[in-house]
Design a protein that fits this description.
Number of strands: 9
Bound molecules: S-adenosyl-L-homocysteine
CATH architecture: 3-Layer(aba) Sandwich
Structural class: alpha/beta
Order of helices and strands: HHEEHEHEHEEHEEE
Shape: globular
Number of domains: 1
CATH class: Alpha Beta
């Protein structure tokens, strides 16, 4: 069962979590504000109520995880979201990252390859507050050609390399934030599509994500 009550205790823990993430180096006030607003415990089973505001990843079923808040903040900051940016997210999972993006003012198009996780989000009443998020069941490697091009693309699973089709769905000037690497550890990269179509690549810190897998399940 999911919790539905957001108590003063939860709010206090959330404030502490936000301070922790700030101390770890996140500087975007908009991102920190989003983390301090969103009831992360709603995205987890009530069994996790005591620990929901620790800066850790947790299981959400189907061998998947809700990302660590610091990681969510890190990717969100690199994406430099502006109001009404069209953002494509690969790997909806718990939908926590999608809600952070929506709080930043993005129009979010998020894809999940696992039917059970996709269906769980359809039943998740809290998400009704976010009409700016559109949920899709499909293979993220294909992107969403019908809704392209996007201002921003965020990949929340480890990709062995930059998915070419997704680069094709970026606007000129658009950015992709993606953890790249085939092993346990990936490098966070930011790819910018220049106006002449060439790509600029910036490399940031190391992270550890669950792998991006081809096809639906
Ligand atoms: N953004 C999530 C993190 C989820 S973990 C959150 O905030 O909780 C990564 C997710 O990516 C998993 O749910 C996994 O099923 C999904 N995934 C992996 N490969 C995918 C693909 N090719 N297309 C869409 N989703 C994928």
């Amino acid at each position: 069962m999911r919790p539905t009550e957001d108590s003063y205790r939860h709010k206090g823990l959330r404030k502490k979590l936000t301070d922790t993430i700030r101390e770890k180096g996140i500087t975007s006030e908009e991102v920190l504000q989003a983390i301090s607003q969103i009831p992360r415990h709603f995205f987890l089973d009530s069994a996790f109520d005591e620990v929901a505001y620790e800066d850790r990843a947790f299981p959400i079923g189907e061998d998947q995880t809700i990302s660590q808040p610091y990681t969510v903040a890190y990717q969100s900051q690199l994406l430099e979201v502006k109001k009404f940016d069209k953002v494509l997210e690969i790997g909806t999972g718990s939908a926590y990252q999608a809600v952070v993006l929506a709080e930043l003012g993005a129009l979010v198009f998020t894809i999940e390859r696992q039917k059970k996780l996709f269906d769980a989000n359809k039943q998740f009443a809290f998400l009704k507050k976010y009409p700016a998020i559109k949920f899709f069941y499909g293979d993220g490697y294909e992107g969403l050609p019908t809704y392209a091009p996007f201002d921003k693309v965020i990949i929340t699973a480890a990709a062995p390399e930059i998915p070419a089709k997704l680069v094709g769905q970026m606007k000129p000037g658009g950015m992709m934030v993606i953890p790249v690497g085939a092993g346990e550890i990936q490098l966070m990269k930011r790819i910018t599509k220049l106006d002449d179509g060439n790509l600029k690549e910036e490399v940031f810190d190391r992270f550890s994500f669950v792998p991006m897998v081809e096809g639906r399940r």
